[in-house]
TrEMBL record:
One of its GO terms (molecular function) is oxidoreductase activity. Gene3D superfamilies: Electron Transport, Fmn-binding Protein, Chain A (2.30.110.10). InterPro entries: F420H2_quin_Rdtase, Split_barrel_FMN-bd. This is Nitroreductase family deazaflavin-dependent oxidoreductase. It comes from the Bacteria.
């Protein structure tokens, strides 16, 4: 699956059962280890509702599941993240716009206003492996060079 897709395992908020969903990664940040995905069914997506309920969360990039934490991106960060995704994927833009139009129920044309409306309706969620450590600048081992 590489960094293009991930498998999210989550605990059902009512059943307590483990469920799995494969999601496309719209951004992977090597510095923080965050993989950002989009909730194609908005706030009603079961996986998102289960995460919000506080159950177990694991992410698998194809090397086995690892415990993870999540955060929902704010509108500005979500809009910028999705704009960058669209720029990186120009060849599939017509398919993506068609798919988003079907999911949203209104014509997604890729404009800034449409993108802003889309990320307000379809949350972007960043997942980070619990074991990932943020990169730190190297420590100095002596006096600064002059």
């Amino acid at each position: 699956m590489g960094r293009r897709f991930l498998r999210l395992s989550h605990t059902g908020r009512r059943s307590g059962r483990t469920f799995h969903v494969v999601l496309e990664v719209v951004r992977y940040d090597r510095t923080t280890g965050e993989a950002t995905v989009i909730s194609g069914f908005g706030e009603t997506a079961d996986w998102l509702r289960n995460l919000r309920a506080g159950g177990r969360v694991e992410v698998d990039f194809g090397r086995g599941p690892s415990p993870a934490a999540y955060r929902v991106l704010g509108l500005d960060e979500a809009e910028a993240t999705y704009a960058a995704y669209e720029r990186r994927n120009l060849l599939i833009a017509p398919l993506v716009r068609w798919t988003l139009t079907a999911l949203l129920g209104w014509t997604y044309d890729g404009s800034r206003a449409a993108r802003r409306r889309m990320v307000a309706e379809l949350p972007l969620v960043a997942l980070r492996l619990a074991a990932h450590r943020t990169a730190r600048p190297p420590q100095s081992s002596g006096p600064p060079a002059t």
